[in-house]
Automatic annotation (TrEMBL), chain A:
Source organism per UniProt: Candidatus Sedimenticola endophacoides
The keyword Cell membrane belongs to this UniProt entry's keyword annotation: no
Source domain of life: Bacteria
Compositional bias ranges of the Low complexity kind: 320-330
UniProt KW keywords: PHB biosynthesis
One Pfam family matching this protein: PHA_synth_III_E
Protein name (Swiss-Prot/TrEMBL): Poly(3-hydroxyalkanoate) polymerase subunit PhaE
Biased composition (Basic residues): 331-342
InterPro entries linked: PHA_synth_III_E
NCBIfam families per record: PHA_synth_III_E
Gene Ontology BP term (one): poly-hydroxybutyrate biosynthetic process
The protein's annotated pathway: Biopolymer metabolism; poly-(R)-3-hydroxybutanoate biosynthesis
Spans traversing the lipid bilayer: none
Entry annotated with the keyword Hydrolase: no
Automatic annotation (TrEMBL), chain B:
UniProt keyword list: Acyltransferase, PHB biosynthesis, Transferase
Protein's name in the database: Poly(3-hydroxyalkanoate) polymerase subunit PhaC
Organism, scientific name: Candidatus Sedimenticola endophacoides
A GO molecular function held by the record: acyltransferase activity
Coiled-coil boundaries: none
Signal peptide interval: none
Residue ranges occupied by any AB hydrolase-1 domain in the UniProt entry: 84-333
InterPro entries assigned to the protein according to its UniProt record, in alphabetical order: AB_hydrolase_1, AB_hydrolase_fold, PHA/PHB_synthase, PHA_synth_III_C
Length: 351, 356
């Protein structure tokens, strides 16, 4: 392989394979037989799978993000193209859009047909805010962020809460109580997370409506969207607009607060239980450490205040005007006289 | 007319273009050198705990305002945003505008710093840095420039130590934390900050990253990477992109106690306007500010809405108040080409006129 072999040769092979399959795929698409993964997409996937192991982490992550967004962008355009290709020449564009958007709406209500990858990608786009949350939670925890996401919710949750509210019995009642508290907080967090997810699913359908409205405007203005990128940008703009409206509502503020608070309550309970275990093994606990940190900061604050005071006093001392000569010399002169008298007395004694 | 007309051959062409850019640019990306930030020469003049105070060195013989300027950056993110690269450096341009620039770098607080309060930051760290600069220049009063949260700190500091500040510049600084368009304010309304800080100690940078990305999730976590494909084959543009990316995710943890007070007093109680922000034994009253004020903000700032900054007007006892509204966003005000040529020179001129 030449110095740039992979890029120049392997990449072009992938491209060639892609072009070869493109025609075939397009033929199938126009016949309504859309494969789950487009050939260009699988080509891109294979290329990246071959390359990724040798890529530095940061660079690899960027590439993956770009590829994912590229799939999203082209998948979206293909989705519309497939819809349009199947239309009879005389169909009104309003009807065509209605059909296309009906599919998108289904994706947010969970009714999308299995194997409709473009729809799933659209849905995944609206999972971005949630995905960001999961990543953040993962970074604060030893467990994956979505560990609690698919726990039962609704009536089973109420039953679990009722069961967990029963008081503990016997010697281990305190420990039982801790575990019950822990599970109750798990259930509360999971409920908050599901409500949060439901909210996003709801505004996902609104963004489809907004996209439809934006397309209508484009049509009314006699303009056309001619590239996947322009369509993608329109979709991002519609999503961002709906999102910014909805996350400023009182409902979202409450959901957001509940989600963060539920996670913190859960983590606090986990920390308390870990502390119990550490204490039992005579190991330093988080609580003790926190006490030490607070005391240390109090000490630091006091030391800094004392240093500042000392500096101020030194400066004041240095800046104090020199004592008048006569006054300053007087005591020394007096002392000198006393010494002289003493010396004279001693001398007289010796004599 | 049908609003979508993406012809298959055009789509194929677009895909091919995208793929070729990816393939060509992947090499640039995967072999990108270490990303450097902070380009202007500087010397360390004071350090304390994790804080570092830097003095930026001007070219020999360059004209300099006799009154030095101390920049107070936010605790959130890193201050190298102000000096991110050779052709996008607010600091470099402030020096070019004749200012003698100092900057506080707060460092990365760890667990041992979790009990640092706003009093420690403002009446402690900032005050000692101001004293160091005053002493180095033999001046009673210096110029202070606060950025974002650092701007709010600078307002508090000036209100409490007016005798040490000659002129105050605030950039993208929130004053009214509860304007109707302030997303962050809406989101923390129901947040139990005591529970959060008691649980986490320091507030992790990841939590802040998530919050900031959540302001525009589709643009910042999706569309941005499509835009990146366009610059992949241009090494310089790619490095600029990576530099910004590095800065965005370079979020220090926040000292827990300072975070607790900032959210409660500033966001939840809107204390700069309503009162109630106590630092040590004194309460902050913006009427304590009597020096000239220059308030610079972004008209399209999604993090600190312009009205949040405009609220400063008329709230202080200053008789010399000036506003500059920049047609850009929270970050663009430091890094955009337009800002480079307008904002630092305007700040320099405003200060020169008042530093005699």
């Amino acid at each position: 392989m030449s110095e740039h072999g992979f890029w120049d040769q392997d990449w072009m092979k992938v491209q060639t394979a892609y072009w070869a399959q493109w025609g075939e795929w397009a033929r199938k698409a126009t016949g309504g037989d859309t494969p789950a993964e487009a050939p260009w997409e699988s080509a891109m996937r294979h290329w990246w799978q071959a390359l990724a192991p040798g890529a530095p982490d940061a660079g690899g992550e960027f590439m993956q993000k770009m590829i994912d967004q590229g799939k999203m962008m082209f998948g979206f355009a293909e989705r519309f193209n497939a819809e349009l290709a199947g239309q009879a020449g005389g169909a009104q564009w309003g009807e065509v859009l209605n059909r296309a958007f009906a599919g998108l709406q289904k994706s947010f209500s969970g009714e999308a047909a299995k194997g409709d990858d473009a729809l799933h990608r659209m849905m995944a786009f609206w999972e971005m805010p949630l995905d960001n949350w999961q990543r953040m939670v993962s970074s604060l925890s030893l467990t994956p962020g979505d560990l609690l996401r698919n726990m039962p919710h609704g009536d089973p949750q109420a039953n679990i809460e009722r069961f967990l509210s029963a008081p503990g019995l016997g010697y281990t009642r305190e420990e039982q109580g801790q575990h019950q508290q822990m599970l109750l907080k798990v259930v509360a967090y999971q409920g908050a997370l599901q409500d949060y997810a439901r909210f996003f699913s709801g505004i996902g359908t609104q963004s489809v409506d907004r996209m439809r409205a934006r397309l209508d405007k484009v049509g009314e203005a006699g303009e056309t969207i001619e590239s996947a990128r322009a369509l993608y940008d329109l979709w991002v703009g519609a999503c961002e607009e709906v999102y910014s409206e909805q996350v400023m509502t009182a409902e979202y503020a409450e959901l957001h607060g509940r989600l963060v608070n539920a996670l913190m309550a859960l983590k606090q309970q986990m920390a308390a239980m870990v502390d119990e275990g550490l204490g039992a093994m005579n190991m330093p606990t988080r609580k003790e450490l926190r006490t030490l940190q607070t005391r240390m900061q109090e000490n630091r604050r006091e030391i800094k205040a004392l240093k500042a005071e000392l500096t101020r006093m030194r400066r004041e001392l240095a800046e104090r005007p020199a004592q008048p000569k006569a006054a300053a010399k007087a005591p020394r002169a007096k002392a000198a006289r006393k010494k002289s008298v003493a010396r004279n007395k001693t001398a007289a004694g010796k004599g | 007319m049908f609003p979508i007309n993406i012809r298959p051959e055009k789509l194929a062409e677009e895909m091919a273009g995208f793929s070729q850019k990816l393939g060509k640019g992947a090499e640039n990306l995967l072999h990108a050198d270490k990303i450097d930030t902070g380009v202007s020469p500087k010397e360390l003049v004071y350090s304390e705990d994790k804080l570092r105070l830097y003095h930026y060195t001007a070219a020999e013989g360059a004209r300099q305002n006799p009154v030095p300027m101390l920049i107070v950056y936010a605790l959130v993110n890193r201050p190298y945003m102000t000096d991110i690269q050779e052709d996008r450096s607010t600091i470099k341009n402030l020096i070019a505008a004749g200012q003698d620039v100092y900057l506080i770098d707060w460092g990365y607080p760890d667990g041992a710093d979790s009990s640092l309060t706003l009093d420690d930051y403002i009446n402690g760290y900032i005050d000692r840095c101001v004293d160091v600069v005053r002493e180095r220049h033999g001046l009673e009063r210096i110029n202070l420039l606060g950025i974002c949260q650092g701007g709010a700190f600078s307002l508090c500091y000036t209100a409490l130590h007016q005798e040490k500040i000659k002129n105050l510049v605030t950039m993208v600084t929130p004053v009214d934390f509860q304007t109707p368009d302030n997303m962050l304010s809406a989101w923390v309304r129901h947040m139990d900050v005591d529970l959060l800080v008691d649980t986490l100690g320091n507030v992790p940078g990841e939590l802040l990253n998530w919050t900031f990305l959540s302001l525009k999730p589709f643009s910042l976590t999706g569309q941005k990477y499509i835009n990146m494909v366009d610059v992949l084959d241009d090494e310089k543009k790619l490095k600029n992109f990576l530099r910004m990316e590095k800065w965005i995710f370079d979020s220090p943890d926040q000292a827990g106690e300072a975070f607790r007070q900032f959210i409660k007093d500033f966001y939840q109680r809107n204390g700069l306007l309503n009162g109630g922000v106590r630092l040590g034994e004194r309460e902050v009253d913006l009427k304590g500010i009597r020096c000239p004020i220059l308030n610079v903000f972004g008209e399209f700032d999604h993090l600190v809405p312009p009205d949040a900054s405009r609220a400063l007007k008329g709230r202080t006892a200053s008789k010399d108040y000036t506003e500059i509204a920049f047609r850009g966003g929270h970050i663009g005000i430091y890094v955009s080409g337009k800002a480079q040529g307008t904002i630092p020179p305007a700040i320099g001129q405003w200060l020169d006129e008042r530093s005699g």
